[in-house]
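yo

u said u wanted the structure for the complex thing, so here. seqs first:
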Amino acid sequence: MTDNDTATAPIVQMEKVNKHFGDLHVLKDIDLNVVPGEVVVVIGASGSGKSTLIRCINGLEEFQDGHIMVDGNQLTPHGKSGKALQKIRTEVGMVFQQFNLFPHLSVLDNVILAPMKVRGWSRADAVETAERLLARVGISDQAAKHPTQLSGGQQQRVALARALAMEPRLMLFDEPTSALDPEMIGEVLDAMRELAREGMTMVIVTHEMGFAREVADRVIYIHKGEIAEAAPPETIFDQPKDERTRSFLSRVLKH
Amino acid sequence: MEVTFQFDWGAAFASIPHLLPGIPWTLLISFGGLAIGFLIGIVFGLMRISRSRLMRIPAIFYIEVFRGTPILVQVLFIFYGLPQLLGGPINALTAGIAAIAVNSGAYISEVVRGGVQSIERGQREASLSLGLSRTQAFRYVIWPQAFRRMIPPLGNQGIISIKDTSLFSVIGVGELVRQGQIYIATTFTALEVYFMVALLYLAITWTLSLVLRFLEQRGLAGQ
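structre next:
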């Protein structure tokens, strides 16, 4: 592979990925490529498998067959990826619906933990990066507090800073605003918007259709574990080709 | 009608100097046994929640056996029974510490398991997604939170084990009850002496409760 190829090669390649939870076929022959710099938004009804899909990318979910390649590291079915999985998780950040901040650590310690323990940075370097990132998400004055002392929107912004501190090549967002009070959704989306503008590669599961239309390069509609339609946002939202996409959008966009 | 028997405070106070030598023994057996029991509890508690059956089954077996049999039988087995297997005597202090260790270890295993399992799955997922290894996730994220939740049940077990040492008078170790028995043999003031023995246990367990309450409050303030 030449340097030129690496630059344009997909950072995520999913090929015929299948996942079952017992009798339930959660993901069916998923094919998905994400290229560096791309923002992919995944939409679909709850239980459609969209969270499971992105959780497969960093190995939080096992899959039964197919191939997943992330940044040159191959994930193997049945969760037996070992070192490759570790490398992927180091390079891929994730923001969760429930924030999942570490409640026993201060905001600052939440952000510096992984850079120090995984990347081996000195405390001084980690703190410098953390302070820069916390300032960027507008939380600098709260660094010494504990997560439970912050609002939901602030917690989610800390979670974003924590993931970014590892300098990820790819960011995954699993319904990042679904657990937030309505008045706090905007501040989190703003932080994500800025990240997208800076060229971060992002895969986002969300119910925020306005946000999807605005930031996505490509929108993927998942229906019962299958990719029903994948297209630029204008196409998906204004001229959906698939009947299932039309029906889903008419239900979520109406109210 | 006149009361024929009265509580003799003089006799009660007079017993104190004779009982005090029991306190170091009681403390040594309790805290020595609990320290070892805590280590046993961590090891078996984690084995109990291991994904490997090879780890889980021995842990379940250990917990069921030592939680399901009386501590009195355990200490008699160790003191009188084991020497026949080992071919040499075991001193009473060692037997007492060992009995507290294996008995509290079984209960503490369950405390450890409960504490670790009570931590939300998202904590582990967030740790792993940041690139931490499973060991690092446990050490830096899961365990510190689990340990805080374990403090109240650990305190409970500590108090139970301190009181359990009173049974070890049967193997002749010179703890509080044993000292009381020896003293009563010469004075026949059972009421007063056992009353004082009870008070001394209360002093020990109450102190422990206060220390734990302090630790818990500090722990909660940090959350």
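DSSP finds nine helices and no strands in chain B. Chain B touches chain A through 20 residues (CB under 8 Å).
cya
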